[in-house]
Structure formats: structure tokens, C-alpha cells
Amino acid sequence: MSDRLAAQIAFLSEADQLKSVMRASRLHDNSRYENSAEHSWHVMLYAFVLAEQAGPDVRIDRVLKMLLLHDIVEIDAGDNPIHGTVDAAAQEAKEQIAADRLFGLLPQDQAKAFRDIWDEFEAAETPDAVFAKSIDRVQPPISNMANGGGSWLEYGVTIDQLSQRVGTPVQRGAPRLWQWLFPKLEAFFSKMPSK
Amino acid sequence: MSDRLAAQIAFLSEADQLKSVMRASRLHDNSRYENSAEHSWHVMLYAFVLAEQAGPDVRIDRVLKMLLLHDIVEIDAGDNPIHGTVDAAAQEAKEQIAADRLFGLLPQDQAKAFRDIWDEFEAAETPDAVFAKSIDRVQPPISNMANGGGSWLEYGVTIDQLSQRVGTPVQRGAPRLWQWLFPKLEAFFSKMPSK
Ligand SMILES: [Ca+2]
């Protein structure tokens, strides 16, 4: 048991670094960029509050676990801003290596279980993963509207790009949520200042 | 539905402020204080990884939800450092008012459900709450050992105070974990520099 606990605490200690991975999105009060650990907490809260937006096959307890783990690879691979210009294949390769190393710190049974959850999230095929992805995508636009434009201004994003990059996954996992949100986004973009 | 979603998003937006509530504990790399949102994510990860430390009656899915919500009252009431000298009764009164206001932003059914989860955590009586509390208490000592002493140095904490304030709840919810951790804490305190 002692070795097992040592491995678990080593993983949990390494995970502390997610608090220092900075994202492209900013806090609602615009005081600073958001980090990936607090983002992970916030999207879990979104998923729990908005669980009724999910289809009947979605098990919210599994969605929370997916979102708990979904960004841990960023400790090694960094955040990949959705409106940025990162090479997707290169980033995916980096994330695979990161997942090997980071989940590999855990005892073997947990390493496999955690990796399976993360792989399922990344594949975005099961109902749980589709909903988790939609929730992960819907939080930054709400922050951006609160703080005056945030990453949209920084990356020069148009409403059409937003519809494609965010609307597509959100509609897939939480269609009523997108239907409610889209008119608000349109209104915001129609009067958004340029940088 | 539209009003319901508006209330839910208002709550989720207000919750963003938990990212700006600073705790007494510091990151493992000692670069800055930890905030209560990223702490909440980290203790959920602790609970998930260390679930096998819980007693047979503990339902880890409920523990995760408790830890997701457990610090939201701090948006209004502030963090209450375990080694600090806050008036416990006054702090509890502030937290009750905070819970009324913050959970009250949600639709009524969710306001009640979330408040019930938080009340259960605070009461620390059910097996789920006892385990959640033990996990919430065990994370800061591990950070403090990583960063050279952290809040122990700042508050002049002794190993006896630590045993009482942290050991008691951790032993209650996760006794084997405390058995494993305590000798490490003793060794650390025996050579900890003073401030
Ligand atoms: Ca991400």
C-alpha cells in the first residue's frame, strides 16, 4: 500500500502544475488570464448546473470525471487556444506523450482507468464525451461576453468563426443551450469594439 | 426555459469570482498563493485518486459534487485559514448568509439541492461528508511540504497543532492515509526552518 500511495501522491503533486498553465480566456472581471485548473473546476460546475441540457443517455457523474481530467495533459503539452493557429496533428502528438507520462505516474490500474476516461473525452463519440466537450466549449464565450470580448478581440474572431468552432460542438451536445446563447452572441458581436 | 437558463448562467458567472478568493496555502512551486477555485479542482482530483481510502459507505460521485460546491460561499464570506484566528461563530454566520445569496441565484429546485449538498458537507456527519472533509484537509499539508513550509511557517504552526487541526478530521475520514502521512510530517517539522 505504501508504494501505491506514494505513486498517487506523486501524481497529485505533479498535477499542481495545471494551476500554472495559462489559457487564452480571461476572468469575468478581466483582471487576468484564466488557468487550466480553475477552468476545469468551472466547467465541472457548468456541467452539474446544466446537466438537464444533456441527452437522456448522458451520465453526469462520468461527465464530471472527464472534465476533472480533461486538461491535465496541458501540464506538458500546453493549452491549445481554439482560435489560435496551432498545428493540430503536432499538438495531438504532444498530448499523447503527455498522457503517457502524467497518467503513467499513477499505479497501473488507475493509469489505465484515467487514460481510458481521457481517451473517451478526446474521441468525442460517446454521449458523455459529446456533452463534456459541449460544456468545455460553452464556458469561454460566456466569460468573453462578461469581460468585453477577451480572446475574441485578441484573436480577431468573427461570429461565423465562432459558430463553426464553438457552435458546432455545443449544438451537438447541448442544442437548446446553443439556441439560447446564439442570439446573445450575435448581439454582442454586432457592437463589439475592435482591438 | 429561458428564465431558468438565465438564472443558471447568472449563478455560473457569479461563481467565476471564486478564482479571485485567495487561500493561505501556496502552490507546490511556491510561486504564489492558491485560489479557492483551483483548490476545489485539486481536492476533487485527490478524492477521485484516493477514493479507495474511503470507507465502504462512501459514494465517491457524491463526494465529488460536495467538493465542487464546498467553497463557493467564500465568494462572499472569504477563506477562513485553518491555522488563523477567525471567530468561528461569526464566520459561520457569514457563510450562511453567503449560501443564501449565492445558491439563491439558481432556480429554486437547484438552489435547494445545492444548499442541501453544502449543508451536508458542513455538518460533517454522513460518511460522504466525513470523507470529503478529510480530503479537503489533506491537500494543504502536501503542498506545504512541497514548497518548504508555506502556511505553517506563516502561522507558526507546531506538529501538535497540525495533528489536532488536520490529523483529527483526516483520521476520521481516511485513517490509513493519515497513518502514511504522519511520519512524513513529523520528519518535515523536525527540520523545518523558522520564518
Ligand atoms: Ca483545453
TrEMBL record, chains A, B:
Keywords: Hydrolase, Metal-binding
Any one cellular-component term (Gene Ontology): cytoplasm
Record SMART domains: HDc
The protein's Enzyme Commission number: 3.1.3.89
GO MF term (any one): 5'-deoxynucleotidase activity
CDD domains from the UniProt entry: HDc (cd00077)
Catalytic function, reaction form: a 2'-deoxyribonucleoside 5'-phosphate + H2O = a 2'-deoxyribonucleoside + phosphate
First-level EC class: hydrolase
Co-factor(s): Mn(2+); Co(2+)
Domain HD/PDEase: 32-114
SUPFAM superfamilies in the cross-refs: HD-domain/PDEase-like
Entry superkingdom: Bacteria
Protein name (Swiss-Prot/TrEMBL): 5'-deoxynucleotidase
Subunit structure, interactors included: Homodimer.
Residue stretches in coiled coil: none
Pfam families associated with the record: HD_3
